[in-house]
Amino acid sequence: MFRRSARLWSLLAFPALFAVAACTEDLETGAVCPTLCPGQGVDVFDTILTPAYVYDSTLVGYPTQGLENPLFLAARGDSLDVRTVIRFDTLQRFFRPTPADTLRPITDVDSAYLSVIMRADGLPTPGTFFVDVYDVDDAAISDTILSEIVPLFTPARLMGTYEGDSTLTDSVRVRIPLDSAYLRAIIQDPDRRLRLGLQVRSADAVQLRITPFTLGVDAGPFVEYRVSPDEIVGRVGPLQPYSETPTTPLIVADDLTDYIVVVNAPGTVASGRFSVGGFPGTRAYLRFDLPRWLTDSVGVLKAELEMVQDPVRGMSDADTVTLNTHLVLAGYPITEERRAATLLSPPDIFTLPLRVVPSDSGQKRLSMGGLVRQWRTFDGVQFIPTAIVFRSAVEGTSPATVRFFGFDAADPALRPRLRVSYTPNVIFGRP
Amino acid sequence: MTHSGYSRLGALALLALLASGTVAAQGTVGGQGFGYPTGQMSGGVLGSGGAGAESDPNSAINPAAIAQPNRFSLMLQFEPETRRTSAGGRSDAASIVRFPAFMATGAFKRFVGAVGVTSVLDRTWTNSYADSLLIDGNWIPTTVTARSEGALSDVRAAASYFVNRRLQVGVGLHGMTGENRTGLTYAFADTSGVGAIVQSADYSFNGAAMSFGIVSEPKDGLQISASMRSGGALVLERSGAEVGAADVPIRFGVGITWAAIPGLALSARLDQTRWSDLEGLGSAQVSLFDATEVAVGADVLGPRIGPVNSAVRVGLRDRTLPFGLAGNAVKERIWAFGLGLPVSRGRAQVDLALQRATRTAPGASEKAWLLTVGLGIRP
Fold it and tell me: Which CATH number is B8-377's, of 2.40.160.60, 1.10.150.20, 2.40.50.140, 3.30.70.20?
């Protein structure tokens, strides 16, 4: 019995010892490094590439009309005038007094109003301000063209006014009363549409944000009105915005359900410089042509784009503006810059946001090592264009504009430079 | 502008230590260059310091020795090592588990054949430590992680022949193979704006050699063995491209075992490996040293376990390791103690060897415990 037991224990001893020993492996050391680990060093080289890139351009008109979010109203004296248009191309023109009744045309309109969510933006709300609502529908014109729609903001087309004061700071839903008779005339004419133009005015500078229709009926604009003095008859609405034109492509009609119109804004584009932000919104497109050795033969540790800021004085020049950097994803066949500047990566996935004040000057650095690493070539092939786009985080909602000297600045010292730290591709592991 | 990737303090220490040259090291004293030479010996002879390896059938040393059991057998072993390395006033500990040997043996009349795999140079380690890099004029903290896994292995097919009861001869064909999977990473804090350095490379060995040996017993109780391995080409490849070429190191060895009195066998072995044949396999910074190995040991018949006696072993081994540290040779001294425990009436045997190794080089030292567990089965 004892001998069998001994044999059993002897046989069990081996796997037990094996298991105990195998579980205790701990290879990691480091305290004696780098003294005993000299083969693990790397050399780091620093260099400056001038010019940093080969082309830049300021592209105007962003966000694309109809894609603004939020919408914007601004009136800052003679400097800035931004208005908003909201289309209600389908209106309820019939009603049923009671559920048992038949449909009948609307002949009476009362207590009509436009409801929007509004909040102050960028500036203290003045003591008193007014939001005027105009009928800006005219089938004979293209209401997205500035010169054609602005003449429609006339007193004869004024449908209502909202008076606000300094208590409006955070988002609040406000009702802007609409002229019921005016609206009734539109409703009774099947060929007319309801397209409302909003303009803000005040003795002081005023900027307001309006939530667009894309955020749904709870947050977006709508219209309501009564069609009978009888309280039993329910209100019509909320009627959500809707756009019928252009008929093709249909998606553009959807985009143009609401949009902004920049009537007046200071120009910020200057030669030898590129701009970001402002009204109409601008983006900067920069195309690089990195040396081959940088993209295929070294490991980039750090790359910083050094730019010299050109101060822009004027509206919101003391605001801090966040510049987002986007990698251009448009392929080589897309040569149109404006289109290329729309097909972008999400913001700052390979960089850090750059925060600048428009009135500031001097050198600014954008860390873009992650971007340069994305531009690595394989067998000499560059798979994506080496281009970036700068975009303001408040694009379309702030007049603040940031400007930098470009690659063609008259003074070479003001041109952007690319400061790169890299390590050669050494192959580790062969002692 | 260029600058080394080491911290200022580290760089000074490095310069002081490596004034006569540099090697790609691994944070250990014994595992420099292409790694630690495991010895290709079985757990049975490691218990006696490897003194009896020239006549040991389970060690991939002498192809003539495989005739000893004269029947089919299987042998495998594993070998955990725990070590503490000291250098520059600092020390670090690590432990590793190796599986250095496997062998199958079979006999046919006067012939015995064996195939097996043994580790020649084990190169498995990981280093992780804080350092800093001078990048764009600023010292940026970084965490360095370097690793290597794998070994240069010896796949041997051996045959031996009983000439008569006092002489066996053998020949072995060796395929030198294996790989080193290596990687180096410099990681930086997210806020540094510096991208990580990530490098990895897999290396493979490809070489061949032949070995010859004899085991003779000129008189009862006295056994004299000798063997040599003659190296062919050994190539180091990375991604299929040759990056280094050398020869498999030539090795000569002679051993003597004397059954001095019943129950006691004394052994001694002298071995010379010309590791300098590896020149060209690594970079010019690798310092190679031809190694002389001397071992003495004793096997004492132990108490019976069942019908078979156990064995108690002691030994001492001195050798030079093939890869130097800062241009200086690394010496290793091993004190060994072992047990041979028969299992299942002698159909299997567990060999345990506990070794205390001391490795020294100027400015650095290493102390290690190695526990070798070998399992031999003779069904």
Answer: 2.40.160.60
